[in-house]
Amino acid sequence: MKRSRLYVLTILLVSIGLQLHSQTFKNELILTSDFEDGKMGNWGARGTEKVEVTTEIAKSGKYSLKISERSKTWNGPIHVLTEKPVPEDTYIVTAWIYYKEGPAQSGFVMSVERSFQNEKQDHSYMNVASFQVERGEWTQVSAEYNVPKDPTQKTIWFYFELPYKEDNAVTANDKINFYIDDVRVEKMDPAAKPKIELAIPSLYESMAKWFSVGASVEPEDVEPSTQKAQLMIKHFDTIVAGNAHKMDSVQPKEGQFDWNRADKIIDFAEMTGMRIRWHTLLWHSQVPAWMFQDPKDPNKTVSKDLLNQRLKNHIQTIVRRYKGRVESYDVVNEVLSDNGGFRTGSEGSKWYQILGPEYIENAFRWAREADPNAQLVINDYNLESSVRKRQDMYNLIKDLKQKKVPIDAVGLQMHVSINAPSIQEIRETINLFASLGVNVIITELDVSIYHNPSESKKPITNDILLWQAQRYKDLFNLFKEAANKKQLDTVVVWGLTDDGSWLNNFPVPGRTNAPLLFDKQLKAKPAFWAIVDPKKVPGIKQ
Ligand code: 9MR
């Protein structure tokens, strides 16, 4: 029988497809350390701790590397990753970690250190991934590190440590001995690196009728020409810094503003025509220590007068610099307590402790003075789920408005879960604030796949992703409803891809989350499709 053309074509396409599928990527092996020659190779210590080859225990063979006499969390074994860093190279590190004495479980972190050509520049340190290890069990850990685009970087090392604590907070549990074995480092085949999907709709274009859609990023995410930057450009038209605009990043030393990381995000946004939100002029967290210290004696608390001056200077230096460029500022972040009223000193707010509640209105007035046209926002979390906190925020905004404090909008962070709070609670929250005549902004949206903060790690199944998709769909339906009522014009998600979310390893160490719209491979998740084209997601209710 003569084969039909269709048959031949089908066979051809199937075989091309199979070839593409079976294409194997060739990662380059950079390092294997099993210590079986009884030598340390190029492994070393980071501080005064002892790093040695031992036969006490091994994952495979006879030897492993033992780390003992540790006195700081950051004490641990270190090895060069590369002396010739090539931006955008991706390294995959796998290793086994073991400890036999100490707490039943312990967090471990893989980090990288970088040196720079300019010797005066400090080394930089970054946590790449954190893991949970059980006492008495060899645990395999693995992490990927993407080399930043920085022509001045020289050598990159990787190392293992315990989660960071200030020296004076270190306890015996932070000083445990541990062992590593069978370390393997590969450089990823560039052909295997994730690429954005070009042929899908743009998220922000799909929502343009209702609101602008933003995402928070780190400076590394927006190095022009990287795939993450392309993802940002394609899908978002508002940008926010996840960390780079916070006090400790912008003014690490008194009077020495460091615009380097801040401007990477601003420059990218201006180059690509995005709207810019600034997060945040004031927060109780991520504040450099000097801010609250007396200039003559760091053990003493700064005076009220000087702290007011420092705060005014911080706010106005930033707002003047970006006048007409930054459209919207989170002026104050998380100033309310979860237990009612203002966040006090006992809940971490030195602002409140030293300055009293007036710091809030001062911050708004100083910001307005520096840029009369920027939108000024008060930002907080759990305003939807806690009726009391919501009412406190309502009363606070009302009071500020009565005092003619220039406040334009309330930011609902919207770190929600797959199951709660309800859409109706969120609707009531938006309606309540809109009734005060302020705009509502969704500032930090993500949808945790866990039902509560302490639920233990679970596999991320397709069912969960579909459930999450429905939740995103319902949320976006509500945001559209609010936009139609002119209550809301901006929705920002807190991160670009699941792997970069703050909800990984938090609040449960070792727990993986998947709260965003794109996955690690830069692929649109069902949640994205539920918002943009719901018929593509099976079982979605409109
Ligand atoms: O996403 C931020 C994360 O990378 C930081 O480690 C963390 C430090 O506190 O801050 C995260 O962002 C927070 C934001 O600034 C304020 N609202 C809660 C966010 C998640 O913790």
Dominant shape: globular
Summed over residues and divided by their number, the pLDDT gives a mean of 93
* Largest β-sheet summary: 8 strands, parallel, barrel
Strand segment count? 20
Distance between the first and last residues' Cα: 50 Å
Bound molecules: ligand 9MR
Could you name the CATH class of the largest domain?
Alpha Beta
- In CATH, the homologous superfamily of the largest domain goes by the name Glycosidases
Percent range for β-strand residues = 25-35%
CATH-defined architecture of the largest domain: Alpha-Beta Barrel
The structural class is alpha/beta
Notes on the structure:
- The chain is of the alpha/beta class.
- It has twelve helices and 20 strands.
- The chain has helices at residues 5-22, 203-207, 227-235, 247-250, 260-272, 304-321, 350-355, 358-370, 387-402, 423-434, 462-484, 526-532, and strands spanning 28-33, 44-45, 50-54, 64-68, 77-82, 90-98, 105-116, 124-134, 139-146, 153-161, 178-187, 212-217, 238-241, 275-282, 328-333, 375-380, 409-412, 415-417, 439-448, 488-493.
- An eight-stranded parallel β-barrel has the order 12-13-14-15-16-17-19-20, surrounded by five helices. Strands 1, 3, 4, 6, 9 and 11 form a six-stranded antiparallel beta sheet that branches.
- Helix 10 (423-434) links the parallel strand 18 (415-417) and strand 19.
- The chain is globular and about 75 Å long.
- The two termini are 50 Å apart.
- The structure holds ligand 9MR.
- Ligand 9MR is lined by residues 242-243, 285-286, 333, 413, 444, 502.
